[in-house]
Amino acid sequence: MRVFVITGDKRETAIEIGYSSKLLKEEQSLVIIDCQDADYPSQECERQLYQAIQTVQKEQFGLVIDGESLRYALHEHVAIFLRLLNMAHSVLCCRVTPLQKVSFFADCLRVPIRPTLFE
Fold first, then answer.
1. Is the pLDDT of residue 106 over 80?
2. DSSP assignment of 9-20, as one string?
């Protein structure tokens, strides 16, 4: 079962909430997707998503993504983002607007997130 936390809090606050609620574990890797300060945020988001998949192939990890990166991931790189979501043990979305929260759930309901076998 995957647990998603979607909050408007800053990344550091969201991560602390993740650890204090035992959603994240100290022995887990933490993958952070943050492309909001990049010159070309869409391309940077895609690069970070692919890099994350290559890095965490077999290990348990928690995924942290900010609202701006989430926008690119959901609308421009949805296939690779869903692949990463299927691999993650838990997902923290931080700095997310109320509209993005609704959009995230609507997108997830349209495309079921379930365990997937990868080559």
1. no
2. S-HHHHHHHHHH
Structure tokens, 11: 């990344």
Quick check: 116 pLDDT over 60?
A: no
Domains recognised in the chain with CATH numbers:
3-110 (3.40.50)
Distances (CA, A) of 23 to 41, 65, 73: 28, 15, 22
Nearest to 70 by CA among 2, 1, 3, 4: 4
Instruction: Please give the full DSSP string across 53-90, using - where no structure is assigned.
Output: HHHTSSS-EEEEEEHHHHHHHHHTSHHHHHHHHHH-SE
Dump pLDDT digits (tens) for 58-80.
778 899 999 889 888 888 888 89
- Token pair 């602390």 in the structure block, residue: 16
